[in-house]
Amino acid sequence: MSFDPKQFLKTVSASPGVYRMLDERGDTLYIGKAKRLKARLASYFRGALNAKTQALVGRIASIEVTVTRSETEALLMEQSLIKELRPPYNILLRDDKSYPFVFVSDRHPYPALEYKRARVRRNDGRYLGPYPSSTAVRESLSLMQKIFRIRNCEDSVFSNRSRPCLQHQIQRCSAPCVDFISEADYRRDVEHAIMCLEGKSEQVTAELTRQMEAASQTLDFEEAARLRDQIQQLRRMQERQFVDTDAGDADLFALAERPGGLCVSVITVRQGRMLGARHHSPDNELDLGSEELLGEFVSQFYLGQERDPPEEVLTSLALPDASLLQDALAERAGKRVRVAHQVRGHRAQWLQLARTNAEQYLATRLADQAQLTRRFEALREALGAETAPQRLECFDISHSHGEATVASCVVFDQQGPVKSDYRRFNIEGVAAGDDYGAMRQALNRRFKRLVNGEGKRPDILIVDGGKGQLNMARSVFEELGIEDIQLLGVAKGTTRKPGLETLFLETVNRTLNLDNGSPALHLVQHIRDEAHRFAITGHRARRDKQRRTSALQDIPGVGPKRRRELLRFFGGLQGVRQATREELARVPGINVSLATAIHQALHG
To answer: Contact 4/369 with Cβ under 8 angstroms?
Structure first.
């Protein structure tokens, strides 16, 4: 089956990450990194391409992606993979010895931050680095010049200036060439930039915060505003580089499961650096539980494949025989091996990254065109129809104790989700918590338009909620005179576990019996889960809009003092909203659990 870029791009993450382009034999053609994977990969399949890129795209049989937390981490992983695999289309990348540096002169009273390809053994300044690539150096220099307004001109140009240049006018240089800043103040800015490049940006931020407060107390509001902008820029720059910590060897295993498929992602970390990820889709013919399945996989990965385990084996779930496996691996390796699933710090972040990659890969795999075709064909057989349905619609209701009720309508065709046809309905005039009334209003609003000749007609309407919602849909169709759309109700089992649903076809007296492994059931579960997600997202957005009083005021545990600390630490409410959980936990008086509560309250 040929590679379908449209279908592939539908499910690619917009996060930073690394992608590997493979040919028909599974050999790596090209490895790249991207700040936004979806946008970068889409660029290969549209617009004019040069001859080399056209040749590359013509050989692609599949693409594998690994999600990272930042572009910097993607860059580090890209370098490691290229060094290991030597893909034929990465011919311009160089050897480790060519890693560049940032140089700061000690001889000039107003030194610049300079790009240097190699370290020169002279005592005339400081070298910072090495950096993974020239791009990394130039991006770092650009950011430091933007935040601290450090000059980037040559010494010969600097000594012959008589008026400020364009860089000063666009706020990228403090114009030391014409004495617009004192030598002491300029040196202070340079030291702050160096500290940031050395990973000490927290200290710089704390110092700038003190200066901002002092400026505001002396009513120097212009200086306070400038310092506030610097603090906000530094906060955006600060990211914990947990993929490159210079310590720790570990393998990470994360299991992701959805109706119709599962994935185990294995991420390899050596000396604190992520070397890459591999994804596996083992068969689960015995229908093992999640923990048992992952335990079997880890055991076979090492003991059945002649692989040497690292110091740590970290898993996303608690393995049932973790101590036994730990002893076996230690005996095999001839050293202590730790098997764990509850970890903290950068190891917890590694595990979260493994989970993200497993979910991403599984989502892409389940959206595969062949898989969808097989599911639609299975649904046709289950319904006894002559042709497979072309369009499915599913409705669901979401609210919080009757507050901000929202109904969702999601659409699937044989290509997968048709997100351009998704709709939400804000429910009004219905008693709080009346799901039947909410469903009636949403269906009336959707299908009255259809009766009037507006919109596309689905082949099957799926309603989540069981017998009651199915009867409601049937009554709406009878009132509107709709007879050519098949109705399918989905009732959750007693434990609400996937695979135990009851399906009602047309009436509550006619059930559709499908086994747990049926592709038709997996299709119904997929569209039902998507409708649920879409409804919850809309409900939370509407609820938060209605509760727009104070974003921090209603969070339990956040009193006036902590609100003041949060706003001071991030320079305002916008900075608090943009902060991650890890950044929130670094605020004085905010622990990890409270940081999680704040993040959830601000982002739903």
So the answer is: yes
